[in-house]
Design a protein that fits this description.
By secondary structure, the chain is mainly alpha-helical. It has a single domain, classed as CDP-alcohol phosphotransferase transmembrane (TM) domain (Four Helix Bundle (Hemerythrin (Met), subunit A)), CATH 1.20.120. 76% of the residues lie in helices and 0% in strands. The radius of gyration is 19 Å and the shape is globular.
Amino acid sequence: MSEKLQRLWATKTKQDEWWSSFVTSPLAVAANFLIVDLQWLTPNRITALSFFVAFIAAGFIVVGGTGSFILAAVLIHISHVLDCMDGQMARYRQTSSAAGSYFDRLTDQVQVTLWFGAAGYAAYAQSHDVVPVFLAFIGVAFYGLRGYAKYVAIQTEMSRNAAYLTQLAKTKIFPETAGLGFGWQANIRWFVNEQRKILDFDEGVFIFMLSLALVLDKLTPMLWVFAVSQVFYGVYRSVQHGIQIASPAPSPMQK
């Protein structure tokens, strides 16, 4: 096993989302192995490319039709692999920046809106029923609420404790339990435990869920799952952050 591959694997986010953890993030490590030493290809350029591919994927969803839907599903996965690659590359080169992290997260939020807005339109175009559009709107709104509630909670904590983020960082250290250098039993245990994350209904789940719905041409049922899950988590996380604010000890902020 090469030192380069070991260093790249170490850049993989330890607490990655479902699907990202065992599919798109490992694929990103493999792709980075080939291109990470190309200095003209920067993490920020990969972020921009990821967003461009995501935008094109949304366009194919709007166009509609079996071929366009399948191509959109492929492009969504390519976009997400690129989305994993930029952070890995920055950590490998030790060039991580606050601006890079900001734009990476911002484009993530926008592309979810683009994808599900396009899916809502495509389902409407098929059925002439406005319900899918409403479901997409509700899902995106409450997905945004999850992030907004976390932002407000962090701002509230920092207003009364300037060292809050430093204290919080100490609670978010996750040891390696699987991956390169671990036995097959440890990796199987890790893989089985990762499957619980599918119930988080976060971006990693969206990649799989939306892509599968596009391939099967089942957009409206998927939008129902999307809307209901985001209403639940939007409300749940908002209440959870409120309870955490009332607690005297800092605890990890959930998405």
